[in-house]
Every structure is written in C-alpha cells, then in structure tokens.
Write a structure and sequence with these properties.
Pfam families: DEAD (PF00270), Helicase_C_2 (PF13307), RNase_T (PF00929). The chain has 952 residues and is α/β, with parallel strands linked by helices. Among the domains are: 166 residues, 2-Layer Sandwich (Nucleotidyltransferase, domain 5), CATH 3.30.420; 187 residues, no CATH class; 218 residues, Rossmann fold, CATH 3.40.50. 48% of the residues lie in helices and 14% in strands. A seven-stranded parallel beta sheet has the order 10-11-9-12-17-8-18. Strands 21-22-20-23-24-19-25 form a seven-stranded parallel beta sheet, sandwiched between helices. A five-stranded mixed beta sheet has the order 3-2-1-4-5, with helices on both faces. Helix 5 packs across helix 15, helix 8 packs antiparallel against helix 15 and helix 22 packs antiparallel against helix 23. The radius of gyration is 31 Å and the shape is globular. The N and C termini lie far apart (63 Å). About 1% of the residues have low confidence.
Length: 952
C-alpha cells in the first residue's frame, strides 16, 4: 500500500472558504516518507486575522503564490493509487474534492483513513488526540504547527507509529478488530481486514507477552497468585527499628535516587506529627501548603506503621487525579527507597472496573445502541485489554459517547456472578479487592469510604487507621453519600436497559431465549415478560409526567441568561408543601405500586427459571436482569423517601436546566449537618484519623473544621492534635497580591456595563504585561460569559489566546493542557478551577480573582445550615459563609506558586477585601505574600516593575 498524507490550511471551515497552503507527505510501500510536497496557494480573498494568528500565514506569504489550478496540477499525479490519510481527514477531504471539482479534475475515489481513528483504537490511553500534543507525546518532530507541510509530515510520522503498533498486536486482537468492523462497510474495516490477511499468512506467530482466554488477548493474569509482600520473610523487617532509624535508611536511598533531594522542614514536621498520631491513637488535623511534599509526609509513616504493627492503613483522596498521582509517581518511588518489600494497592469504586463477562457478552452479541460510536469504543477496549493490568476506566480516553457504553459493561455488585463467573480469576474488580486485602496500605477515595459504610463495611478491607487527604472536601462528600441524589436518567437508564423495545434490552433477550426453549413453562414465562413490558412502559410514562410536574415547580430565574447551567434550583420545605403536591404524590404512588408488581413477578420468574433450567446458559443474563430489578427497587424507595418530605434533618431540593427541561431534573435530600455521622463512623470507631489539606484553617485557627467535621468531643478528650506547617516557599519574594482599591463594585452574579468594560480592559492590560499565562477565576459562569467575547477580541491583536470553561469544548484537564500548550494564553474558569489544577512553572504567571468566592446564599444547603445556626443564636455569615469562602480563596491563591522557582502576581478585583470588616480574614489566611493596594491606573506599571525586578 502507498499512502498520501494530506493537510490544508484554509481561510476558515465553511465551504465558501479558500485553501491558503497545501501539504502532502507520501509514504512508500517500504513505509518510509519518500517525499513532502508543499505550496502556498493564492486564495483570492483576505486571510482573517485569527487564521494568521493560528497559522502564522500572512497576506505577504500568499500574494505571489501560485493559483489553485497550478497547485492541483502538481498534486493530482501524487494522488494516483494511494490511500489518502489525514488527521481529522473529513475536513481536508472536503476541500480536496471541491478543489478537484473547481479545477476540472475527477473526484478522488480511493480509500480514506483518519489518523484520529487509529490513535483512538491503538492508543486508547492517550489523554489527547490534538496533533501537536500527540507529536510531543511520540517525540515526533513538529516544527511549525498549523502549517500544512509540517502538519502533513507530523501526521505521516504518527501514522507510521500506528502501523508499528498494529504490528505489535497479537493475532487474536487483530481478528477481533477485523470482526468488529466487518459489518461496517468502511475503509477502516477494509484496512483491518487487509492487515489481518497479511498477518495470517505469516508462519511464525508470536504468542508472548499476553494471556489468552475465551478468545481475548489479555495483559491480566490470575489474581489468585498475588500474595502478601513479605510472605517469605521469617521476621518483621521493622523489629526493634524506630521510625527515626527507618527514615535514615529511606533518606540515604532517596539521595542516591534523586541527587537534588533536599529535606524540607515542613515535611520533617509532618512525618513526626503523623507518626505521633498513630503511636498515641489520636486524630490529627494538619494543614500542609503546596510544596510540603505531603503525600510522602503521610505515606512513609503509614508504611512504617502498617508493616511494624501488621495492621492496614487506609488512605483516602478526594479526586481520582490525586489517586492516579500516588499510583504513578509516589508509590513506584517509595517501592525503590523503602528498604523492605511492601504493598500499596489502589482500590476505587466498583463502577470504575470493567466487567469482562458483560464486555464479552456485548461484543459477541453486537449489542450496540449507536453502532458507529460503540464499535469504535469496543475496538479501543479490545486493544486496551491487551495492555491494561487494572481494567480501570480512568486509563481510557473514550470520547463523549463512551460513558454510555461504559455504563453497560462496568462491574456492579448486583449483577456479579462471583465465583460462578467464567471470568472470576481474571476479574479486575476482584483482583483490586484481593490486592487491597493483601496490601499494607490501601489508597481509596472519599466516595468509596462512604459507599463502604452504606454497604455495611463489605467493600473495603477492615482498617483502624485512616489518612484523609484533601480533607476539606470530606463534609461535602459525606452529605452527598449519606443523603439522596437522583437524576431523571437514573430511572430511565434502568428501565431502558431492561426493555428498550421488543428487540433491545435484557428482557427481550431473555424472551428470545425462552422462545427457543422446550421447557413446559416457557410459554408462561414469556407471558410474564410481556406483562412486565407494559408495566415498565406505564412506569416510564408516569415518571416522565412526574419529572415534568416537579420541573414546573421551579420558578424561572429572573437573573439567569438562557442556557445557564444549573439554571434552576428550588427548595422544598416539609412544613410548606407546594399546593399541587397531592397530585404529585398520587403519581409517585402509582409508580410505587406498579414497580412493586414488576419486582414481585420478575424476581419470582427469575428464581423459577434458575431452578428449572440448569443447562440454560442464561445464568449471566438472569444475573444482569436481577441486578437491574434491584436497582429499580432502590430507585423506587429513594423516590418514596424524597416525596414524603418527612425529615427535619434533611434539606430537600430540585435542580434543573432551562435547555433540557424535565430531562435535566435532579432531586436531592441531604443531611443538613453530617458532623454527628462523621463522629459516629470515623472519630469514635477508628484508632486514629489523620486529616490533611492545604486549606483547613481560617485566620490561623482550626475551629471551623473541628465543628464541621464533628471533632469537638475528640478535642475535649485530648484525642485531637492540630498542626499548621510552615510554608517551604518564600511568599514575600515569590508572590505579589495587588488590589485596585477604586475598582467598581458589583451586586449579584451579573456585572453592569461599566463593571464589565472596566474588568475587560484591566484583564487585557494585565495579560499583555504578563504575556498571557494568566488564570482568571470567576464565581459565576454568567460573568465569565460576559467577559469572554470582548476579552477575546481585545487580546486577538496581541496574539494572546483566550480559553473559556464552558465556552471552549473540553474537560477541565483538556482546557488546562491547551492552556499549557500555548505560549500566550488566558484561561477563564469557574468553580472547578479554583482548586486541583496544577500548572507549575512558566505556564502561569498571574492569577486574577474577580469576586471573593462566597457560595450563593440562596443555595438550599447553605440556606438550611444558616437557618440552623440562627436558631442556635449564631451568626451564619461569620460562622459559615466567611470560613467557606476563605478556604476557597486560599485554594484559588494556591494555584499560583507551585514550586520554589515560581513567581507570580495575584490581582483581587473585589474591593470588599479592603472595605469590609471580614476582609481581613481573607488576607490574614494567606501564607504571607507581599500585599499592596493602589488606584487602578497604577496597577499595570507596578506589575511590570515587580516582574522585571529579580528576587533578592
């Protein structure tokens, strides 16, 4: 095969736009790039400034360039008998066809392949498919991104990497891929078929490096073989060894491994405090700012303690990100520096693990709802199975529709066959559970801690010592898990998985099996299934109607722009039910009765089939159906609990979005105060709980956290230690906080014209002074939208890109990567960007905080907590709103300085920080940056001056 890799630069992406540059890289039969063709093209229309900004191609470059006719005359001979390849090839292909047509040539009729498809399938764990970033990842030279010849060459080299990867796939995986695409009549299908035929002709097939089972090539082996780390050691390696002696050995090995390793004062204190808490059976609140090295600060004492005392230590993080960082960075390093073998296992929520039985079932039956997308996801996963040892969905980049696919193949307790499953010994979830069982230290997340409590401690191995990282989230996660949260689609997904239509769904699959069965009761069972169908359809209709009515209870928000996410929030008060509540409870009652009937009939039928038909081969299908029935039962009970509105200790509310109306409905019932439950589950039961985060104190005191988390009694009994670690950074030299004291103020979540234009002007001037590299934090998405367009326009001429959360597509991590990948850019973010975003070094020089991050006072949970405080004669603003906002503000500030080399500016545009009586709590809580306030006009000169002076 001969390939031609094509790339065009154009004046835009409409059909009326013109080509301004063409690039074509030819890959010969021997898989080398034999030729790269390049030419500018005279477009005959002006090049828009943003295209010049993106590509660097100017009017000067194209004014003497050849016309399209001439370029096509040179390109057409190169396109004979080739397979056309491109990155997002549809774009370039459309321009090619139109150019051929315009210049009088016949259209291109050869095969077309997209490197995007190949990357998705062959490198399922790549975090991005953007050409520049992939080239970077593969160490492919890509000197001039967004220039056609450079893009075409980079794409060609990436395509060759994909072909190499195909060569390394086991034959079985290729057969599976070819089989998957066979029904697709696509060029991709043709390609995999051709590759397979070629491979099958080879006499020597390498079988090494994989486990083969039930026609899949896997990386995972039987987990039964995994044993405790020190099984063969006769005595405890820490016998008679103190923590100090252990640390001496670790430090020596650390210095050998990392010559630049220096012991940090704060980390040393932390090691001591955590060890003491473990030894004395106490709880510990420890605030450790950025740069402390806090993960080692708790992992080393945890390893020492668990090995010496032979008792497990549980470590919990809030984000999966941090869990991954521990898995990929910290644990491997500790494995090398700790002088004896130990095991640390990562254990996540069950839905993160692939169920191999369900996946096999789905692939073999081609049970695809949206075939085009799902075949692609299935192909990714076939390749991934030959690579993954964990089966954890975080390793996969599945694209936007992948989530729905994952839901149908994720591991679930209700549909697990346990030891009866043919896949049991390879099962990813049971492997993770077993690893946690034999590990010394288990790393999990806050969600799983609470799921374990709700499951009667059946999920996690028993533990008496717990380290909670990112502990400022504990209260929030507890509320979500100990309360109730249900979406419109929670119910719909369960119903459609049971019965989508007469052909799709688990019940129709069972019905089809029964039709071929000779069993005397088959007819009776089929009638029951038909009966259930109609009840499920009725339930779906009633649920739609109930969701519609619940949605209409929410008043339209007067201050919301159309399409605002989370647009509607409405609190329901037990003592003041809405006036048509009876009509709604009647609907809920109908759903309750109807589902009760379905579950009774359904479960009885499943049990009968199980007893009667041993050789039926339907065991896994019956288990899945019975699991879905269980889900329906839980959803029915949750809905009943919500509709009763009985508990004074819970706050009930609805949320929805104006665009999707009742389909976006979410219902919540959350405990107003979780401190008693936290005390009961953790602080009374566990020997020691260590809680750490960069933000636990407010105005140098831990009182707020002690009250929120239920630690008052532990403090009174002298079972609570607290510690604030000194910062390893010199904030006076490294950070300057500037407040423009005459900045206009704003009421509510939306700025007036004067405020917005002053803000845009100031942000633009600051961005120019800091050459972009700026993160702007908003408290409302509406204000972000007000600023986005005018700021983008203003900075375009300066060559600075503006990236906006919710305005530019992509997840938080994708936006962050784009920001880091571009030299001069400004990133606008709302709530999720205030914390957990790590942008060290040059990429971030300035941080602008538009408003102090108070939570909206009318949010139901904040409202209910405030009412409770008022009843206790306390001031909700000072007791709740200010501490929450200060913690958030400190999180935001913490984005700026991430290493001892970082320097940066923080601009706070909210003058309440100077004018109000509570402003000082924000300023005093920071780790000591240089603070200055001045009139707005003096701000830019001061910033430039500070950036130009070298730190002393």
């Amino acid at each position: 095969m001969k390939f031609a890799v094509l790339d065009f630069e154009t004046t835009g992406n409409q059909s009326s736009d013109k080509i301004i540059q063409a690039g074509l890289a030819i890959i010969d039969h021997d898989l080398t790039v034999s030729q790269v063709y390049r030419s500018f093209v005279k477009p005959g229309i002006p090049i828009p400034p943003f295209i010049t900004g993106l590509t660097g191609i100017t009017e000067d470059d194209v004014k003497d360039a050849p016309e399209l006719d001439e370029v096509m005359m040179e390109m057409v001979p190169l396109l004979e008998d080739v397979v056309l390849v491109g990155h997002n090839v549809a774009f370039d292909f459309n321009f090619l066809q139109s150019a051929l047509d315009q210049t009088g040539y016949l259209p291109f009729t050869g095969r077309i392949l997209d490197t995007m498809d190949f990357l998705k399938i062959l490198f399922p764990s790549l975090t991005t498919y953007q050409l520049g970033l992939v080239a970077n990842e593969f160490n492919v030279q890509h000197d001039r991104p967004h220039q056609a010849d450079s893009d075409a060459l980079a794409t060609a080299l990436i395509f060759l990497k994909c072909l190499e990867e195909i060569d390394s796939l086991p034959l079985l995986a290729l057969q599976r891929l070819s089989d998957l695409f066979a029904g697709e009549d696509s060029d991709l299908g043709w390609f995999f078929d051709a590759v397979l035929h070629e491979r099958e002709r080879e006499s020597q097939q390498s079988q090494e490096g994989f486990t083969y089972y039930r026609q899949f090539a896997l990386q995972v082996d039987d987990w039964m073989d995994i044993t405790p780390a020190r099984e063969h050691m006769l005595e405890n390696p820490l016998k008679d060894i103190s923590f100090e002696q252990f640390m001496e050995q670790v430090k020596e090995r650390l210095k050998e491994k990392l010559p630049e390793y220096e012991e940090r004062e704060a980390q040393k204190i932390m090691l001591g405090e955590v060890t003491r808490a473990f030894e004395e059976d106490k709880h510990l609140l420890i605030e450790a700012g950025t740069g402390t090295g806090k993960s080692l600060g708790y992992l080393l004492p945890a390893i020492y303690h668990s090995v010496k005392q032979e008792e497990k230590v549980m470590v919990s993080t809030h984000t999966i990100n941090l869990q991954e960082q521990l898995r990929e960075r910290d644990i491997p390093m500790l494995t090398e520096v700790v002088p004896f073998p130990f095991r640390a296992a990562i254990f996540k929520g069950r839905q993160h693990y692939l169920c191999l039985r369900k996946f096999e079932h789905k692939i073999n039956r081609r049970d695809f709802t949206t075939p085009k997308d799902e075949v692609m996801t299935a192909a990714q996963m076939i390749v991934w199975l030959a690579q993954t040892e964990t089966g954890d969905d975080e390793e996969l980049n599945m694209g936007n529709r992948g989530g729905d696919f994952w839901e149908t193949v994720a591991s679930e307790s209700d549909s697990c066959l346990g030891r009866n499953c043919p896949w049991f010994r390879k099962c990813f979830y049971h492997k993770a559970k077993h690893e946690a069982g034999v590990a010394d230290v288990v790393i999990t997340n806050h969600s799983k801690l609470f799921t374990d409590i709700q499951a009667g401690h059946q999920l996690l191995p028993a533990y008496d010592r717990l380290v909670i990282d990112e502990a400022h989230h504990l209260e929030d996660v507890a509320g979500k898990h100990l309360g109730l949260h249900m979406k419109y689609f929670t119910v719909v997904h369960t119903l459609t998985r049971l019965f989508k239509d007469s052909k799709n769904g688990q019940l129709p699959s069972l019905r089809a099996m029964l039709q071929h069965s000779l069993h005397k009761k088959a007819g009776e069972w089929i009638r029951i299934i038909d009966d259930i169908y109609s009840s499920l359809l009725d339930t779906k209709e009633s649920w739609d109607k109930l969701s519609e009515l619940l949605f209409t209870l929410m008043p339209e928000r007067s201050d919301a722009a159309p399409g605002d996410p989370g647009q509607f929030v409405y609190r329901l008060l037990p003592q003041k039910k809405p006036k048509n509540w009876d009509e709604l409870t009647a609907l809920e009652n109908g759903i309750h009765i109807s589902l009760g009937d379905v579950l009774r009939k359904g479960e009885r039928m499943i049990n009968e089939i199980r007893e009667e038909e041993n050789d039926f081969g339907a065991e896994s299908l019956l288990t899945d159906i019975s699991g879905l029935f269980k889900d329906l039962g839980n959803e029915r009970d949750s809905l009943r609990f919500f509709m009763k509105l009985e508990s004074e200790d819970n706050v009930y509310w609805l949320e929805g979005n104006g665009n999707y109306r009742s389909k976006s409905l979410q219902i919540f019932a959350v405990p107003i105060d979780v401190s008693a439950q936290l005390k009961d589950y953790f602080f009374d039961k566990k020997k020691s709980v260590v809680m750490t985060s960069a933000t636990l104190s407010v105005d140098k005191s831990f009182q707020y956290m002690i009250e929120q988390l239920g630690l008052l009694e532990a403090a009174a009994q002298d079972r609570l230690m607290t510690s604030m670690l000194p910062s390893p950074f010199n904030y006076r030299e490294q950070a300057l906080l500037v407040i423009p004291r005459d900045f206009p103020s704003v009421k509510g979540s939306v700025g007036d014209q004067h405020f917005v234009s002053t803000l845009v002007q100031s942000l633009a001037d600051t961005a120019v002074a800091t050459k972009g590299r700026m993160l702007v934090l908003f408290t409302s998405y509406r204000m972000l939208r007000q600023v986005y367009d005018p700021l983008k326009e203003r900075l375009l001429v300066e060559g600075i890109t503006v990236i906006g959360q919710g305005m530019d597509s992509g997840s938080r991590s994708k936006l962050t990567r784009r920001f880091q990948g571009q030299n001069a850019s400004v990133l606008l973010g709302t709530s999720s960007f205030w914390e957990g975003v790590d942008i060290p070094g040059e990429a971030l020089t300035s941080l602008a905080i538009v408003r102090l991050p108070f939570q909206p006072p009318n949010h139901p949970l904040v409202e209910a907590k405030s009412e409770r405080l008022q009843r206790e004669k306390k001031n909700p603003f000072m007791k709740l709103s200010v501490p929450q906002a200060v913690i958030r503000f400190k999180q935001g500030f913490g984005r700026l300085v991430r290493s001892s080399q970082d320097r940066g500016i923080v601009v706070v545009y909210d003058t309440r920080i100077l004018e109000s009586y509570y402003g000082k709590y924000f300023l005093y809580s920071l780790p000591g940056p240089k603070m200055e306030h001045m009139p707005l006009e003096q701000m830019i000169p001061r910033i430039s001056e500070w950036l130009d002076t070298e730190p002393s």
